[in-house]
Design a protein that fits this description.
- Keywords: DNA-binding, Transcription, Transcription regulation.
- This is AcrR family transcriptional regulator.
- It holds the Pfam family TetR_C_11.
- The two termini are 22 Å apart.
- Helix 4 runs parallel beside helix 7.
- The chain has nine helices and no strands.
- It has two domains: 59 residues, Arc Repressor Mutant, subunit A, CATH 1.10.10.60; 118 residues, Tetracycline Repressor, domain 2 (Orthogonal Bundle), CATH 1.10.357.10.
- 72% of the residues lie in helices and 0% in strands.
Length: 202
């Protein structure tokens, strides 16, 4: 699954690509420093060293800018692993989620984007596409596990991947409990065990 930016055609090496990259980097920096409430298009333009008119014309609102940040993050996401073991693949997935959510920059960005998605349909749609892309990517490791006979036929691969990340996002957004590799490994083991028991069979 691919995501296409709604904010201009991106030509590798072209001016449009350079402007978009600079603006998105600046927007991410501003979000990390000031949060959603402090995000301002004029400030982003200043940081990116591009004209305000360019930023307002292409993104129009701060939520539009956040939506494009999500598109960019999906485009840059790390490919899934293929270790030949469901346990190892799910562990890699969980550890990647934890690494992202605890990163000073990426974690702050996700919190700001999730907050924006609660009040803006365009950002919510971009967030949903982002996670659909990542789940689709990692579902392949469950499909491979089915072919190897590790989990039953009819197992829903998307539900298994959702089960890995759900408790991690709960800690980030709801409980505030620690997020580390041991928590990631526990989430992965729980999802793999449930999958082998047929919990996620359609």
């Amino acid at each position: 699954m691919e995501l296409e930016s709604r904010y201009g055609t991106v030509r590798p090496g072209g001016r449009t690509a350079r402007v978009r990259a600079a603006v998105l980097q600046a927007a991410g920096d501003a979000l990390v420093e000031h949060g959603l409430d402090g995000l301002d298009l004029a400030d982003v333009a200043r940081r990116a060293e591009v004209g305000k008119t360019t930023v307002y014309r292409r993104w129009s609102t701060t939520t539009g800018l956040i939506a494009d940040l999500l598109v960019d993050m999906a485009e840059q996401s790390t490919p899934r692993t293929d270790s030949g073991s469901l346990d190892e693949d799910l562990r890699a997935n969980a550890r990647l989620v934890v690494k992202t959510l605890t990163d000073p920059r990426q974690g702050a960005l996700f919190k700001a984007m999730i907050a924006a998605a609660t009040c803006d349909e365009r950002t919510a749609a971009a967030l949903h596409r982002f996670y659909a892309t990542r789940i689709e990517e990692w579902a392949g490791c469950v499909e491979a596990a089915v072919e190897r006979g590790e989990v039953p036929e009819g197992t829903d691969p998307h539900e298994v991947i959702r089960a890995v990340s759900a408790p991690l996002y709960y800690r980030l957004l709801a409980s505030g409990d620690p997020l580390d590799e041991s928590v990631a490994d526990l989430a992965a083991t729980a999802a793999a065990t449930a999958a082998r028991a047929g919990v996620y069979r359609i």
